[in-house]
Design a protein that fits this description.
The chain has 270 residues and is mostly helical. The chain has 10 helices and no strands.
């Protein structure tokens, strides 16, 4: 009975998110030209989304992770973490604007500070629901659930940027989604896997692994912070700042992946 109630609550939150995320497309306020730009932008985004999903489900099969669990986490990233983060980010933005009007510091660093603190915990919600409904103590499965939730969030965020870029025209919108496609290799799917596995290892694994767990957990917040700072937008003759951040993010995921496979037998998330 309790599990059915939790499932109902999860489905309710997903349905709210589905309507929230699709309202701009179904309300009819976009012009025909804008629908065309949105369609083209989404089509371009599929060039990273489809391969990412294929790899995700291939690994789920290889690592004996139930596809149902991966799907639940993915849907949660799409239709739970996305709208709750958007709503909370807006509330905090309004609060900061009222408390610190015309603040140069907050205008520069609000996104870098607020986004990681809001989004990373909320992306854990789909994983929490999934683990309750379909329990697993396999750390490799937890890694995939983190990737799935983060990827879902990443996809819905990309679609939201398409809508926000529309007023600036065709070229700006298409260039925006192309830019986010290049950033997709080192984005939310890595952050969420670092947070999920890091937190689980810190709380559930043996004492000898707690420092590692804390390192992975905190690294996601630090990487997310750096990605949202003006540093990532510095322009140089040879692209430098963005690639540094991407390389650090991918390297952090490599360290997490290697840690899991080297210590898998010793790590028990009991």
């Amino acid at each position: 009975m309790k599990k059915n109630l939790v499932l109902f609550i999860y489905l309710l939150l997903l349905c709210i998110g589905l309507q929230y995320e699709t309202y701009s497309y179904t309300s009819g306020y976009l012009s025909g030209t804008e629908y065309g730009i949105v369609g083209l932008s989404i089509f371009l985004a599929l060039f990273y989304i489809v391969p990412a999903l294929l790899v995700l489900y291939y690994l789920a099969k290889s690592w004996n992770t139930p596809k149902r669990a991966v799907t639940l986490a993915l849907l949660g990233g799409l239709f739970l973490a996305g709208w709750t983060a958007s709503y909370l980010n807006t509330l905090i933005h309004d609060l900061i604007s009222n408390l610190f009007p015309n603040s140069g510091f907050w205008n520069t660093f609000e996104s870098a500070i607020v986004a990681p603190l809001v989004e990373e915990p909320l992306k854990l919600l789909p994983i929490g629901f999934t683990l309750y409904l379909l329990p697993t103590k396999n750390v490799k499965s937890l890694l995939l659930l983190g990737v799935a939730s983060g990827l879902g969030f990443q996809i819905v965020e990309d679609f939201s940027y398409i809508l926000s870029d529309l007023p600036d025209g065709f070229s700006f919108t298409v260039s925006g989604i192309l830019s986010r496609m290049t950033d997709s290799m080192a984005s939310h799917w890595i952050y969420t896997s670092l947070v999920a596995v890091g937190l689980a290892v810190f709380l559930k694994a043996g004492k000898e692994f707690k420092r590692k767990g804390l390192f992975f957990f905190l690294s996601a917040f630090v990487l997310h912070f750096i990605r949202n700072t003006p540093f990532s937008e510095l322009e140089t003759d040879i692209p430098f700042t963005g690639p540094i951040i991407s390389a650090l993010t991918i390297f952090s995921f490599y360290l997490l992946y290697r840690f899991i496979f080297e210590q898998e037998k010793e790590i028990t998330l009991s």
